[in-house]
Protein: NAD(P)H-binding protein
Amino acid sequence: MTILVIGARGGVGRHVVEQLLAVGEPVRASVRDPRARADLPAAADVVTADLTRPDTLRRALDGVRRVFLYAPSAGAEGFAAVAAEAGLERVVLLSSGSVLLPGMERNAIAQEHRAVEDVLSAAGLPWVPVRPLVLASNSLRWAESIRSSGTVRLVHCDAVTAPVHERDVAAVAVTALGVGAEDAVAPDPSSAAVLTGPELISQRRQVEQIGQAIGRTLRIEELSPDQAREHYGRFSDPATVEAILQFLALAATGGSPCTPTVRRVLGRPGHTFEQWARDHAADFG
Ligand SMILES: NC(=O)c1ccc[n+]([C@@H]2O[C@H](COP(=O)([O-])OP(=O)(O)OC[C@H]3O[C@@H](n4cnc5c(N)ncnc54)[C@H](OP(=O)(O)O)[C@@H]3O)[C@@H](O)[C@H]2O)c1
Structure:
């Protein structure tokens, strides 16, 4: 049974591909640009597909029963229509824990993910959400300034979150695809289904642990929310900047949880941020 991984070069998707291949599952991996095929393992059947171009999805879904779906900000409806025709057994959606988090009802990132979940439900697809709250890989946004100046600009430095390693998110997704433990993960609307890392850790401590992983002492430049708006506004649209600031303000008052979901699903604790920093030392060094 070939499994289609949409977003196969993504931070999570690349681990989904690797983990499926490691247990001998046939994988079809999607890229938008055929030149990116070299980034994927030779054992994967690489297909060119774009969620915003339903014609490309028909080809990608041919002969496929299960799909890992990168949460599309555009293209969810087109995917749902084609997927419904394809008679899939299961779609595992990389969604976001923010859809379940109290206080995030009006947050733009949560609303975007909720909208995608609603589209899959409305199409009658058999879908399973995988809902990480904070990906540890968000810290890769600090890589350039760490490499160039050893400095990280932060708002709410002492806000604590429980960042989850993308490898653990992928492992939960592989389980949800029914590989290894059939039906181990069912759609679960409770907040216990939010995926987090194994420990709460401040942004300040994350920077320290990255510094330890690369053998450098890093500086933190603390920003006010207005300075952060200006700084983040150079990389993200205003709605996303406000959504991030709102989430960090919530985290600064203890609103970002640490859940046992990864351990419950995988039967082992998730990787710590310290481990993530060691795994990614080359990105910061
Ligand atoms: N940051 C967080 O803390 C957090 C928390 C919860 C959920 N999330 C969600 O997780 C997702 C990000 O996951 P990630 O880090 O694995 O992603 P990523 O590294 O940004 O990679 C995105 C992947 O999706 C593919 N893609 C993008 N647009 C596409 C389209 N129109 N058609 C087909 N493929 C498309 C890209 O394919 P190409 O190879 O063709 O470029 C790429 O492989 C986002 O939806 C984000 O909202 C993030």
In short: Residues 108-122 form the longest helix (15 residues). The chain has a mean pLDDT of 93.
